[in-house]
Structure formats: C-alpha cells, structure tokens
C-alpha cells in the first residue's frame, strides 16, 4: 500500500519575566515531514516488541537556531531562518537526532521496560553557532524589550507616566489645530465668484473635450493659490464680518 505521510511537530515555550514580577509565555512550533527511512526508524522505536538497544532518528532542519521574541503582547516569536528549499538552511536551522534510549540489559530498569527520549545535535556545527554532538537543543534568542504600563511606572514613576500622557494629548491637539494659520488665506476670502467661475470653466472645458483649455485654466488656479497677494486682489482685501 501507499505509505501515509508522518509529521513530527516540535514546540518550544519561553516564559519572559517582566520588570515588576509579571510574566509572559510565548511558544514557537516547528513541523517537519519524515522521510520513509525516518518513519521506519520511528515505527521500530515505538513498537511493542521487546526494547533492545538505542534507536537514533536524524532529522535535518528540525528547529531554528535563532529566534526573536517580539515585544508585542500575544505575538508569536519569529524564527530567523532561510526558506525550506534553500541549500544553506544549515545556517539557520539545526539538524537534530531524536534518540530513543533504553537501560542496559539485565538491569532493574530494563526489567520494568523503562525508556526515554532525548535530542542531540546530529553533527558538529563549525559556524558561529558552535555546537557538538554532545549538545542538545540550543537556540540563540533575541528578545525585544517588553514595554508595558507597569514597566513604565516602575522605571520612571507616576510623574513620568503623567508626563507621557500630557505629551501625547498635547501632540494630538497640536495636530488638530496646528494647521489653522495655513488655512487663513483660503478660509477668509470675501468674494470667491471669480474663483468659482474658473473652476466652472475647468469643468466645462473637460466636458467639451477642450483639454488644452482645461489645462490652462487649471494652471491659472494653481498660480493664484501660490500667490497670496494676487489671490487677495482677486477676492477682496476686506475681512469677513458676521452681522449680529
């Protein structure tokens, strides 16, 4: 029959301790498909027959070497790794060997059928990762600084917190009303009939297909808005007044 695909999933969980004693837990999951030879070794290791000898299952690219823990709450960690099909995957993924071990024969543990699993590096890594076959799973973790309200209070106190709030409110108010002085030239025009006629002329020229005429009128409007003095002469120099 056709062999069913078998996948091996590995999950590593980190617990980050924050400045004020709270913690945050994040996990990274890696799933790889097993080859036919690996599936057979796994079947032999998990069979119910008498356990004899250790079984080693080498798996390439089982887990990332470098992991980045982000500062965003509830965000999954990022594995800094190359694509699955790259020939240089060994730069970012580590090759591990899954070992099923049994105690020596004729021992009390062997009589009880004890067994255990362990992970080892498949080979020596001569890169900056610098692992040997005696090492187990190793990960270089890059952790962004976790920022929270409690951490802010612990670092700067309540005064720093209120200063940050006031600063944020001030920036918001400034962004809302800060551009008023740039709108005075347009908002305080007294007589806009000539400008309205120019805009109407642009519409009519476009409607009649006179593209050159439309372009000329449009450029005229742009020149008017770029020259406040000309715009003042065209729309009147008196200020708007509201009659009570």
Automatic annotation (TrEMBL):
Keywords: Membrane, Transmembrane, Transmembrane helix. One of its GO terms (cellular component) is membrane. The chain crosses the membrane at residues 147-169. This is Piezo non-specific cation channel cap domain-containing protein. Pfam families: Piezo_cap. InterPro entries: Piezo, Piezo_cap_dom. GO terms for biological process: cellular response to mechanical stimulus; detection of mechanical stimulus; regulation of membrane potential. Signal peptide: none annotated.
């Amino acid at each position: 029959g056709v062999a069913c695909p078998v996948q091996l999933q590995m999950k590593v969980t980190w617990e980050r301790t924050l400045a004020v004693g709270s913690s945050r837990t994040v996990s990274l999951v890696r799933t790889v498909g097993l080859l036919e030879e690996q599936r057979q070794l796994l079947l032999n290791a998990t069979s119910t027959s008498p356990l004899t000898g250790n079984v080693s299952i080498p798996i390439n690219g089982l887990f990332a070497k470098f992991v980045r823990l982000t500062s965003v709450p509830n965000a999954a960690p990022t594995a800094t790794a190359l694509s699955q099909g790259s020939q240089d995957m060994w730069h970012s993924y580590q090759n591990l060997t899954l070992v099923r071990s049994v105690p020596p024969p004729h021992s009390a543990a062997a009589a009880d059928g004890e067994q255990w699993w362990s992970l080892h590096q498949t080979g020596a890594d001569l890169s900056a990762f610098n692992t040997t076959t005696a090492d187990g799973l190793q990960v270089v973790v890059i952790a962004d600084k976790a920022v929270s309200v409690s951490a802010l209070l612990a670092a700067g106190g309540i005064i720093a917190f209120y200063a940050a709030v006031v600063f944020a409110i001030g920036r918001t108010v400034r962004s809302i009303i800060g551009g008023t002085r740039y709108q005075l030239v347009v908002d305080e025009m007294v007589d806009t009939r000539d400008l309205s006629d120019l805009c109407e002329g642009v519409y009519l020229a476009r409607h009649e297909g006179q593209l050159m005429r439309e372009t000329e009128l449009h450029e005229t409007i742009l020149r008017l808005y770029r020259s406040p003095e000309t715009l003042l002469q065209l729309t009147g120099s008196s200020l708007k007044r509201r009659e009570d």
